[in-house]
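User: Fold this one for me? It's Zinc-type alcohol dehydrogenase-like protein.
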Amino acid sequence: MSKKPEMMRAVGYYKFLSIEHPESLLDIEVPKPAPHGRDILVEVKAISANPADPIVRAYDQAGEGPYILGWDVAGVIEQVGPECTLFQPGDEVFYAGSLIRPGCNSEFHLVDERIVGRKPSTLDFANAASLPLTTITAWESLFDRLGISQAPESNKNKSILIIGAAGGVGSIALQLARLAGLTVIGTASRPESIQWVEELGAQYVINHYEEFLPQLQKLGFDHVDYIFCLNHTDQHWHNMTQVIAPQGKICLIVENEAPVALNLLKSKSVTVVWETMFTRSTFNTEDILEQHRLLNLLAELVDAGKIRTAVTERLSPINAANLKLAHAKIESGKTIGKIVLEHFS
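Assistant: Here's what I get for Zinc-type alcohol dehydrogenase-like protein.
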């Protein structure tokens, strides 16, 4: 007679429904997984919500479900797989997980140790859970995709425009760009988001609902060397083509819904790159271990007081009702910083 599997609590769904629907997210029980290979089993202490959550929730999913979302977690390792070399049970960790595996909105979560970092010692679990996805996205965009040097002396007189700077990724990108010695210009439109962007390091702020070039010229800029666009690629494309410097670089993270006129950038020889922080884990790239190293370096920067978290709201416990609330706020498009959830009971 087979042994009945041990169960764990989770928040999941069976089909896409508007977040207001009572079954859009459900409190469920699923079998507790066991680690194999280089996987570690993490007891989830805290998670954070991201724009990726409602986006993936709207996908047509294969199989019968339930489907579990969530790509930001901080917790404690309960078990390690037989091939693990980086961690051991009891270690406190944080990470963003993989898009092709079940998410972390569950009591326990399996993850490849190569995309996991040691939790900053100066942070509690909730604050630590706010960092991985946004920081990996910002870090890879600035330093891997745009090729910006991390040495401040290399970036004298160089500028970056961060479009949508008040959100989770923008909140970290502002800080990393300042650490790299760039002149940082953020976009924001409301008094509270403008204040947030300035607090996190933007030397200048412009409104993303108005033409960029006249605003930048009033500040003394005819162009910017780099652009990091965090929302509405279609909406901002024309403005970006006007203000990017000759031989400048643009990084995008939001898919365009209609064709964009790349030819507008030809005369300037502008580079356009994409960033998705799930690329390494989705394709098991040769450099997948870089996310482990990146998160460990982030922990050092946080513990040294050089990077602060962007938590603006904490919810408890982790359950369907609170995750619905977090998703609804993210879908409003007006969130500042990060929403975190902690404790399953």
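One thing worth pointing out: The first helix runs from residue 52 to 57.
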